[in-house]
Amino acid sequence: MTLDKNFLWGGATAANQAEGGVLEGGRGLSNVDLLPTGPDRKKVAAGELEMLEWKEGYYYPAKVAIDMYQHYMEDIQLFAEMGFKVYRMSLSWSRIFPNGDEEEPNEAGLLFYETIFKELRKHTIEPLVTIAHFDVPVHLIKEYGGWRNRRLVDFYAHYAETVIKRYKGLVKYWLTINEINILLHQPFVGGGIVFKEGDNKQEIKYQAAHHQLVASALATKIAHEVDHENKVGCMLAGGSHYPYTCRPEDYQEAINRDREGYFFIDVQARGKYPNYALKKFEREGLTIQMESGDKDILAASPVDFVTFSYYCSRTVSANPEDYAQATGNLFPSIKNDYLPSTEWGWQIDPLGLRNSLNQLYDRYQKPLFIVENGLGAVDSPDKNGYVEDDYRIDYLKKHIQSFKDAVEIDGVELLGYTTWGCIDLVAASTGQMSKRYGFIYVDRDDEGKGTLKRSKKKSFDWYKKVIASNGDSL
Questions:
Q1: Where does the record place the catalytic residues (predicted)?
Q2: In which band, very low, low, confident or very high, does the pLDDT at 1 lie, cut at 50, 70 and 90?
Q3: DSSP assignment of 378-422
Q4: Which of 241, 250, 267, 405 gets the highest tally of CB atoms within 10 A of its CB?
Q5: Pairwise CA distance, residues 69 & 25, whole Å
Q6: Tens of pLDDT, residues 265-318
Q7: What is the DSSP string of 286-309?
Q8: Pseudo-torsion of CA 128, 129, 134, 136, nearest 10°?
């Protein structure tokens, strides 16, 4: 069993990390526009520091990002030159509905994406479109409190219906909500949630999760009704947890930590709440408000395929304080001495990708799609912008071989693979441009200086050959 001849090779970006053009073309302000660089970024992302407008003394990289808003034609041309079969991108909710709760959409925003989809189709590139990628219009946060409020289910469903109908025939692969489990770790990023004094944070996060799960099921239902050709996926911030020792308590901790993320996908892929989650709510005294028809909505519209990001595995213990911690990753992890690390402390584990694929496929028995994987690294370009990024080629080569093994040896059903940040963009974790992932170098630094000129790295031609050979030539 080898990769299917229609295997979807490509790359991925997100509107908030690449597009820029904030407030251009009638766009409204979004939560992710308000993530500054520097020490306050984590507090804002976690909902611990309120920042609902731009403030003096801060730098907000999403304002311009890499200005794909102006450069998308040039960028798509480069993706086509690499031979992309698919391009994963997200829509900006506030570009379509500037406040999020309007009845009528912003036509300029709809036209912008329509032009992109037509250009992609001209190059026979399939759009894989994320409806909400860490993206909540600020008005919905100020007026309603973000996803903690049930009203967002209706606003999101109206937004989803608007874009799914508008792009019928142009887009057939949809993802409802990006890395939905990030809501538990960065509630402002994942759900537009800012905590107030006295809030029951766990209860609010899981209430917001319920709203997102219902909204995701409604979007799936709408997509299937609008066009029977539509395929809808969910999206997990993936990566298996290893027990640090063979102590049973460490193994149990690994199961519990995996379940924390699987909970969301269990609901989206199977259509109902797993018993372990219901027991958790009961045990921790969490009251999650569910309307009478919610269970039917979830049951009626499970997703067609499961997508996930994979950058690294994580190592856990029932007694983590006894061990040195890995740095850099959003998810807490003990340092795994068997693995090398990136410059940002993310541990490199290609075999972990194969393990994750097998766990997900065993669990859901649905087609899988790796929609983010890549190496964030400091690149040193020559005077022409060329980067000898052999380290990136080595990372991707090993991960591609790993997912090929999952398909060819283990029999996992895999639809495609999109590397993260196929063109350099703003890093979600730090807001840096210096943490680069792309095959295409963009001349912009961490302070927002640079020409925005695009240039090909060594990995550009390497990935072009990988795609042309359907993964045979690594």
A1: 372 (nucleophile)
A2: low
A3: -----TTS----HHHHHHHHHHHHHHHHHHHTT---EEEEEEETS
A4: 267
A5: 10
A6: 999 999 999 999 999 999 999 999 999 999 999 999 999 999 999 999 999 999
A7: ------TTHHHHHHH---SEEEEE
A8: 180
Share the mean pLDDT of the chain. Answer: 96
CA distance 271 to 468: 38
pLDDT at 328: 58
For 222-255, how does the pLDDT look when each residue is reduced to its tens digit (9 = 90+)? Answer: 999 999 999 999 999 999 999 999 999 999 999 9
Provide the b/e sequence for 364-382 (b: ≥16 CB within 10 Å): bebbbbbbbbbbbbebeee
What are the tokens at 449? 């200086």
| Residue tagged 């000129």 (tokens) | 453
Residues in the chain: 474
Domain ranges for the chain: 8-468
- 436: three-class secondary structure by DSSP: strand
What six digits make up the tokens of 65?
A: 């990002």
Q: Scanning the structure block, which residue is given the tokens 């480069």?
A: 78
- What local confidence, expressed as pLDDT, does residue 325 receive? 78
Q: Let me know the angle formed at the C-alpha of 303 by 299 and 308, rounded to the nearest 5 degrees.
A: 130
- The residues near 111 (Cβ < 8 Å, ≥ 6 apart) are none
- Region at 175 (left for phi over 0; alpha for psi -120 to 50; beta for the rest): beta
Check: CB of residue 433 under 8 Å from CB of residue 426.
Answer: yes
Superfamily of domain 8-468: Glycosidases (3.20.20.80)
Angstrom distances, CA of residue 95 to CA of 13, 51, 126, 209:
16, 20, 22, 24
Cα angle 367-370-375, degrees, rounded to a multiple of 5? 170
pTM beyond 0.90: the answer is yes
